[in-house]
From TrEMBL:
Residues 25-356 form the Solute-binding protein family 3/N-terminal domain. InterPro entries: Ionotropic_Glu_rcpt, K_chnl_dom, Solute-binding_3/MltF_N. PANTHER family: IONOTROPIC GLUTAMATE RECEPTOR. Coiled coil: none annotated. The keyword RNA-binding does not apply. SMART domains: PBPb. SUPFAM superfamilies: Periplasmic binding protein-like II (SSF53850), Voltage-gated potassium channels (SSF81324). This is Transporter substrate-binding domain-containing protein. The keyword DNA-binding does not apply. Keywords: Membrane, Transmembrane, Transmembrane helix. The chain crosses the membrane at residues 135-156, 200-221.
Length: 357
């Protein structure tokens, strides 16, 4: 009889403890992350705000809301200073070791934001390609080739063809003029070698000049395209040697660090990073696509920025729960799953211009 009473006492204690998670007032943390969490003065709205309020109302969860920097949020969850984070946290293998996650409610990608170049910058970049050291060296070498064959032809022609290749300094200019006209295939016909060795020199100019000009043309094309930041970039690897930015302590930062990006600037939130991008302090800002897209579309001061058609690092968003709250985690996850299976959830996503991948 005593044993039976003890069993009932234990069961009652377990039920009481498990239900305590929902009866206690939870500390719910957030940081602005439009369109998921939009802070307008004292007004809070957004996809995650709507979802959390529905979950808390349906499960009768008492809670108090608390704002904090995103960079402090994971540490606060890990230390048990807050019970729930309603930010769109990406589920990662490292995070799941320290905090709990609800069922994922949205999936997205990371992408790259860059600053559009002005017309003046494009012209300056175009002209800068012609002032590139490799191009200048090639142009100098081409001039030496033209001068060499022009001088050589003049040596052979000056005595036998003085009308076309005059003696003295004027004759050297005649030789240079002939070599330029010949190599560029303009073909004025005002000067032409008549001696055997003059024609041999002309043949050498044509063959060597043809090969060299082909290489110089390729060098010019390369100078005009290499190191230009345009929407034609096909993947994020092309930014590994550039100055890039992202949000501090975010999954995007972990991704960039693991993939060997050389210079990563961390920001407390998205806006300071996009401001630095606009002011050309960094060359790209890499973060979650829906958040960047919403910020750039809504903020008129950022209309000079654009998102490249690059998608990588698939991310699954969920609410973060402190580690030892398994019953709370299960109940919230079950309710989230029920909500996102309704058409009402699709309407909420559409209202903020989002679609699932």
């Amino acid at each position: 009889m005593k044993r039976l009473s003890l069993v009932f006492v234990c069961l009652f204690s377990l039920i009481k403890v498990s239900s305590q998670d929902l009866k206690d007032t939870l500390t719910v943390a957030y940081a602005p992350a439009p369109p998921f969490i939009i802070e307008d003065g004292e007004l809070l709205e957004g996809i995650n705000i709507w979802l959390w309020r529905r979950v808390a109302e349906d499960l009768e969860i008492p809670y108090k809301i608390k704002t904090m920097p995103f960079s402090d949020m994971l540490g606060a969850l890990k230390a048990g200073e807050v019970d729930v984070s309603i930010n769109p946290l990406t589920i990662t293998s490292d995070r799941i070791k320290e905090i709990g996650f609800t069922r994922s409610f949205f999936a997205s990608h990371s992408t790259v934001a860059v600053a559009e170049k002005s017309s003046f910058q494009k012209i300056r970049q175009f002209l800068g390609a012609f002032l590139h050291m490799n191009f200048l060296r090639g142009f100098l070498l081409l001039f030496i080739i033209l001068l060499f064959f022009g001088f050589l032809t003049w040596l052979f022609e000056r005595k036998h063809n003085p009308d076309d290749f005059r003696p003295g300094q004027k004759g050297i200019w005649d030789g240079l003029w002939w070599s330029v006209v010949t190599l560029t295939t303009v073909g004025y016909g005002d000067k032409a070698p008549k001696t055997r060795w003059g024609k041999v020199a002309g043949l050498g100019l044509m063959l060597s000049g043809l090969l060299f000009v082909s290489g110089l043309t390729a060098s010019i094309a390369s100078s005009l395209t290499v190191n230009q930041l345009t929407e034609n970039i096909e993947n994020f690897d092309e930014f590994k040697e550039r100055r890039v930015g992202t949000v501090k302590s975010s999954s995007s930062y972990d991704f960039l660090r693991v993939h060997f990006f050389k210079e990563i600037n961390q920001y407390p939130s998205v806006i300071p990073g996009l401001e630095d991008l606009k002011n050309q302090k960094i060359e790209a800002f890499i973060y979650d696509e829906p958040i960047l897209k919403y910020r750039i579309r809504k903020d008129s001061t950022l209309n000079e920025l654009q998102l490249l058609p690059i998608k990588f690092d698939v991310q699954f968003y969920a609410f973060g729960i402190k580690k030892d709250s398994l019953d709370l985690q299960k109940r919230i996850s079950q309710r989230i799953l029920e909500i996102i299976e309704t058409t009402e959830w699709e309407v909420v996503l559409a209202e903020y211009g989002l679609t699932e991948i």
